[in-house]
Amino acid sequence: MSQLPLKIAIGTAPHTADLKNGTVPIDGVAADFVEVTPIIGAFRRMVRSLEFDVCEMAPTTYMIAREHGSPFTALPIFLHRFFHHDGILCRDGSGIRSPADLAGRKVGVRAFTVTTGVWKRGIMKDDYGLDASGVTWVVDDEEAVPGLTLPPNVVRDPAGRSLVAQWQAGDLDAAFTGAAGIGRQGAPDANWSQGANPPQPVAAHDLFDHGFDRASDFYRRTRIYPHHGLLVVKDSILAEHPWVARSLFDAALAAKAPFLAQVDTPEGGDAEIQRYRQLATVVGSDPLPYGVDANRPSIDALIDYAADQGLLKRKPDVSDLFVTLN
Q1: Which of 47, 97, 287, 311 is the most exposed place for a label (fewest CB within 10 A)?
Q2: Of 162, 181, 207, which one is at a domain's C-terminal end?
Q3: Gap between the Cα atoms of 20 and 308, Å rounded
Q4: Domain presence at residue 217
Q5: 37 contacts 184 by C-beta, under 8 angstroms
Q6: What are phi and psi of 64, to 5 degrees?
Q7: C-alpha angle with apex 186: 71 to 226, nearest 5 degrees?
Q8: Could you give the 3-state DSSP secondary structure of residue 14?
Q9: Are residues 100 and 199 in the same domain?
């Protein structure tokens, strides 16, 4: 039987490696994996030109794109998980010691819709009472979905300076770290993670102390386990070949098995394995659960957060967001 050719863009990770190298085949599919580094670049290409048949995508970008009419639907395959009681630096001398202190301040984040930002703002509201509308959010990158109207408290530097430059100059009170903020510079390209001009050390402190413990407590109370990166498939493919959804889901599960075996060992592995091993001590033996039911608290929370932050005009029904697996 001939196989269906599909152009696929997924980031490389311990749990996707066997899928991408062909060790785990996708039943009925001749997969053409396209390498995009960083994978964030593929999100934009999918939203703007439907370049791929199957593509990894940030969940907030996906929900916004769907509301704006993008013809693709997600599988409940969540490719990355993070706790979010961390990753915000505050300038020493700013007087910022808790999330409530961010009110009235300027905080740098790469783009307002970046899923890391949506999670952090939502958690800071839920757990610390921060009203995100009272913060000036300074961005230096474009949003993945063109034409999106942002809240009035989202601004750009009039001189076009990057977050890195503004942070160095002392013009931001706080900033997100890593890819969500001052850990990169410019639009996604091959050298994006390093940035053209990495920031020089600035006297600063983490907003959260004991972040992992705080996040663990948040998870135990709410069962919210922030997800990043899901898999979307063109609606035209799903309409003509509905079996593709199950083939992709089953292959992703099979490719995850060696990763889970590594996580289950007491030591060793790269930094990503070690990170998930630590998460497993809190969330259970599978720190990358797939499927809607296993992730319902997190899915519902992200919908609520995105709508509350003005990124969605209406809250979508979960059944409309994900393919039904037969």
Answers
A1: 97
A2: 207
A3: 37
A4: no
A5: no
A6: -65, -45
A7: 55
A8: coil
A9: yes
Domain count, the chain: 2
pTM: 0.94
Structural domain range at position 14: 4-82+225-321
Tokens of 131: 């009203």
- The DSSP call for residue 3 is P
Q: Which residues contact 217 (CB under 8 A, 6 or more apart)?
A: none
Verify that 200 and 100 share a domain, yes or no: yes
Same domain as 161, residue 50: no
Give, for all 326 residues of the chain, the pLDDT tens digit.
689 999 999 999 999 999 999 999 999 999 999 999 889 989 999 999 999 999 999 999 999 999 999 999 999 999 999 999 999 999 999 999 999 999 999 999 999 999 999 999 999 999 999 999 999 999 999 899 988 999 999 999 999 898 989 999 999 999 999 889 998 876 665 555 544 455 667 899 999 999 999 999 999 999 999 999 999 999 999 999 999 999 999 999 999 999 999 999 988 889 999 999 999 999 999 999 999 999 999 999 999 999 999 999 999 999 999 999 87
Contact 286, 262 (CB under 8 A): no
Read off the CATH number of the domain in which 72 is found.
Answer: 3.40.190.10
214 within some domain: no
CB 92 within 8 A of CB 203: yes
